[in-house]
Please model this.
Amino acid sequence: RPGEAALDGVRFKVSGIRMAVLRRLAKAPGCPILVERLIREAWEDDPALVASGVVHAQLSALRRLLRSTFA
Model:
């Protein structure tokens, strides 16, 4: 389901797995987080077989979104 996030007063839309990944990263800014942990938190008890690739793709998409928003 779509949602909004804000950083430095700038709002942007995020949803689904991207939102779950962003929420987890926001809990520990600047700290490394294992992809396996992101998978556990995003999919809870039933991770998809392609979860690792999906998480990596969402991280890349978040980086692009943040770069374009704050460039």
